[in-house]
Amino acid sequence: MTGAPATGETSYRTVKGVPTPILIVAASAFLNRVGGFFAIFLALILASRGFGPGQITTALAVVAGAGMVGAGLSGWTADRMGPRRTLALCTLSTAVLSLVLTALTGFTASVILAALLSMAVQGFTPVAQAVISVTAPVDRRLTMFAGFRTTFNVGAALGGLLGGLWAESHMDTLLLGNAIAAFASTLMLLALPSTLQERAAGSGSGTVGHREKRALSGDPVFMAFCVLSGITAVVYSMHLGPLPLAVTDAGYGARTYGLMLTANAVMVMCCEVPISLVMRRFPSHVVAALGAACVVSGMAVLALGPNWTVIVVSVLLWTTGEMLVAPTASDISAKAAPPGAVGRYQSFLGFCQTTGMSVGPALGVFLYGVHADLPWWSAGVAGVGIVAGIYFLVRARLSHPATATADPDTTDGARIA
């Protein structure tokens, strides 16, 4: 890496150009996901405790809502406590709550503990993305977001495999593995620099400090972009709701749907980083709009009827859209956030996306119940507004000199006090 950091800023050692804080949070996220049995097997855990379908549905709804809150609040906490402490709080809470949830098996206790656990789990990612935002080299930040997601997804895939093998004969101790992984992740986070805290602009000025506190609420264009990202997530998450119904109703069976999910996972893990190397050369508004267009097209094409050709095209489109949208949205948030507010910006984006992923499957199933083609037509119609909105909002937001990030990034991306 070339160039020197600005006065008062901290640079970090790198491994092949990746700052050490990013390597640490990526490794911590990997451990969390490898042992993330709570998120994958919660329904089975609740069922093993003798709870009925109605109770499990209620519990899952509460847990989903708590996850949205966790994603939405963690960034605010990080901007005040610092990302190192906030990340450690998330992972340590995950470990402790997993242990307590193992011991307390009543319905009310299970729901409350699972909700708190969901807040801790979902709160991790926005803060990790804030760390990437302020430590990654600007010209490679998009790729580092993609790399973080790849590490995260590989961990999730291994976690599903290991958890499935464990749960088959040891469901009662499954959460113990979750706790062990979270404790290990917490220990790893202790290696983060204790000074890893983004410096607020003009920290010596009360006026500027007040303005920084209102940074997000005073940025309606960015907030509108996040809302559109959340709606994009609603469309994308229909692959978890009406899509399996459509595939099985067409006579292809659950195996075909399983192959679709496998193809999606393999493509994301193998292709997201290489695609980011190409896409980082293009303007963010172009990449974000193209990704949204792929997502909505991947769902809209199913209106033609789920045959093999349509299924393959659909998976290719919405998976490509995922690989374009996810890292680019995080990069846009990093570019838009003023100093001292990166955590809040990443957190609000995470809140909108998590909400969309939670709402989308149920909404899609409801529309499918009204008419089998309604989810796909709705995706196509909504997609026109989503794509146009993202294109023009991002272009306007990132080109506006009055609201652009105040501090120029150094070549190593450090904006750390």
β-sheet strand percentage: under 5%
List the secondary-structure elements in sequence, H or E: EEHHHHHHHHHHHHHHH
Q: Into which percent range does the helicity of residues fall?
A: over 70%
Categorize the overall geometry.
globular
**Radius of gyration from the alpha-carbon trace, in angstroms:** 21 Å
State the oligomer: single chain
β-strand number: 2
Q: Please, how many helices?
A: 15
pLDDT averaged residue by residue: 82
Biggest β-sheet description: 2 strands, antiparallel
Distance between the termini: 20 Å
Could you say which structural class the secondary elements and strand pairing correspond to? mainly alpha
Q: Uncertain regions: pLDDT < 50 for 5+ in a row?
A: 1-10, 198-211, 401-417
Strand order of the largest sheet: 1-2
Give a description of the structure.
The protein is an all-alpha fold and 417 residues long. It contains 15 helices and two strands. The protein has a two-stranded antiparallel sheet. A hairpin with a 2-residue loop joins strand 1 and strand 2 (18-19). The two termini are 20 Å apart. The relative contact order is 0.16.
